[in-house]
Design goal:
By secondary structure, the protein is an alpha/beta fold. It has a single domain, classed as Rossmann fold, CATH 3.40.50.970. It is 40% helix and 12% strand. It has ten helices and seven strands. The strands form two sheets. Strands 1-2-3-7-6 form a five-stranded parallel β-sheet, with helices on both faces. The protein is globular.
């Protein structure tokens, strides 16, 4: 695994490194879910570069912001972000998906900087809502962020958590839906149609923001928008496999790892 010499002066630079490291990890581990990692990469990059209050030297500080990756199968992107932030090392990333490694192919709280283990969909948001409620009850300043997949919105536990968050007016909670319009084996529309998702979420009492999930300015503005008296949910319209032309909008890359030749091609395309 190699590191690009490109310096990180912006969230856009951060996203190049995140994509490059994630592609290498999935290739080395012969693992899955690179398509979903690439679709959320820009949102995660803005979050870790410009929004999330986490100190690399004290990542368990009680006043840190909490981030939960509910779509836990896309953990390679978070491990990459944690390495870029200086919480994980390159040597640790090399163990991804290997026997006896804490960097499993679904995210684990045993990894420094990770709040909660997820994998089975529909569990991250209920946990995040509980965190946000604790913060509000104890008048803490830290915030909770939860990243969900669009296919994960099929889970009833999420809708129960949304109702709970709205009822308790958890304005310290920000949810993000990575809406890349592909789940498992087909499109959202053909599998279990969610639309109009924004109207449904508004009816549940959320401040709903629709954005281009690859436009860093839109992403940052959405994170910074104040939502008085209600929780916020950002619907990020994204492209599965974003940045690599042969992966974009191809459901195959929910499962297939890139081989060595495909990896070299992908790294070149993203400018790593």
């Amino acid at each position: 695994m190699f590191l690009s010499s490109k310096k990180i002066n912006s969230s856009e630079d951060f996203s190049v490194h995140l994509r490059g490291l994630s592609l290498q990890m999935v290739n080395a581990a012969n693992s899955s879910h690179i398509g979903g990692v690439l679709s959320m990469a820009d949102v995660i990059s803005v979050l870790y570069h410009s929004v999330l209050n986490v100190d690399k030297n004290n990542y368990e500080h009680p006043d840190r912001d909490r981030f939960i990756l509910s779509k836990g199968h896309c953990c390679a992107g978070i491990y990459a972000a944690l390495m870029i932030k200086g919480i994980l090392s390159r040597e640790q990333l090399k163990t991804y998906g290997k026997n006896d490694s804490s960097l499993m192919a679904h995210i684990s709280h045993k990894v420094p900087g990770v709040e909660f283990s997820t994998g089975a969909l529909g569990h991250g948001l209920p946990f995040g809502v509980g965190k946000a409620l604790f913060s509000k009850m104890h008048k803490c300043d830290w915030k909770t962020f939860v990243m969900l997949s669009d296919g994960e919105m099929d889970e009833g536990s999420n809708w129960e958590a949304l109702l709970f968050a709205s009822h308790h007016k958890l304005e310290n909670l920000t949810c993000i839906v990575d809406f890349n319009n592909l789940q498992s084996l087909d499109t959202i529309e053909k599998t279990l149609n969610l639309e109009p998702l924004d109207k449904k979420l508004e009816s549940f009492g959320f401040d709903v923001i629709l954005i281009d999930g690859h436009d860093h300015n839109q992403i940052l503005q959405a994170f910074n928008k104040k939502s008085a008296g209600k929780p916020k949910i950002i619907i990020a319209k994204t492209v599965k496999g974003k940045g690599v032309d042969y992966m974009e909008n191809e459901v195959l890359w929910h499962y297939k790892p890139p081989n060595d030749e495909e990896l070299r091609n992908a790294l070149k395309q993203i400018g790593y």
